[in-house]
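dumping this here so i dont lose it
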């Protein structure tokens, strides 16, 4: 980037650097504090409350800008171009220089304009509504972890001096690291698990997360040429839905290390593909 501070809009395959597209500078970026929604129950005769797993509200990503325009007329032209870019009918992502390995999915942008204008510049704030309530990594876990500012970088909670792996061959028990700020639940977060193997004769292939007890079982014999794909909540065998032949179980990943086992299978290759998620 030609300017120190930048913010980028990602709309499908199109990326727009605001500091390159418009005569403006980024003065600062901040996100509002995540707000938890925690169900609590009180019971007569029991101190305090019983609390349940919290969920988090959407938050706002605020980008302070300085528009270096020629005059007031030019200012209004640029603001209208920004509105055309940022106020469409589809969701898009925002990425910025301080945490370049993360992106924020937004569905709304408002522009807080100044009350007074200088002759040649004006401050304003872009307020993006991060409706999912979290940011995510630019890449997913199966992209090679080669550190650079565009894909893998600071702010992703990746442990130092650890060789993180998400594809395993002929390893019946292995460790998977989830650097996210939350549990990965395929009901709410994209998580794909692909497995090829030979079934142990007369036994059902199982994928078992020993850390949290979640279990997926395929009640059908398979050979190495078959491909089992658990895409979110839907299992496929050779591209055909096979939920009826399973225990309807789902594998979830806890924060940090997960000890996972493939049971009743030989000649195994298994891959876990998912983005990493963060509260701010």
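and the seq i came up w/
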């Amino acid at each position: 980037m030609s300017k120190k501070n930048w913010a980028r809009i990602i709309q499908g395959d199109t990326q727009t650097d605001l500091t390159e597209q418009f005569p403006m500078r980024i003065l600062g970026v901040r996100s509002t504090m995540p707000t938890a929604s925690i169900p609590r129950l009180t019971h007569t005769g029991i101190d305090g409350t019983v609390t349940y797993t919290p969920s988090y509200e959407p938050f706002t990503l605020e980008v302070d800008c300085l528009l270096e325009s020629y005059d007031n007329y030019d200012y209004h032209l640029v603001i209208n171009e920004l509105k055309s870019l940022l106020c469409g009918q589809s969701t898009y992502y925002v990425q910025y220089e301080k945490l370049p390995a993360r992106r924020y999915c937004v569905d709304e942008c408002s522009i807080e304009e100044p009350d007074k204008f200088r002759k040649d510049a004006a401050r304003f704030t872009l307020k993006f509504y991060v409706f999912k309530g979290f940011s995510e990594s630019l890449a997913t876990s199966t992209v090679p972890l080669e550190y650079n500012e565009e894909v893998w970088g600071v702010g992703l909670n990746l442990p130092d001096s650890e060789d993180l792996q998400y594809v395993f061959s002929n390893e019946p028990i292995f460790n998977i690291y989830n650097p996210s700020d939350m549990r990965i639940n395929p009901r709410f977060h994209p998580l794909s698990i692909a497995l090829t193997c030979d079934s142990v004769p007369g036994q059902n292939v199982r994928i078992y997360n020993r850390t949290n007890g979640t279990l997926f079982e395929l009640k059908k014999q398979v050979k190495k040429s078959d491909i089992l794909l658990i895409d979110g909540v839907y299992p496929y065998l050779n591209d055909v839905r096979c939920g009826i032949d399973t225990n309807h179980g789902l594998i979830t990943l806890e924060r940090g290390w997960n000890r996972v086992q493939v049971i009743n299978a030989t000649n195994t290759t298994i891959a876990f593909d998912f983005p990493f998620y963060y509260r701010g």
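Residues 72-86 form the longest helix (15 residues).
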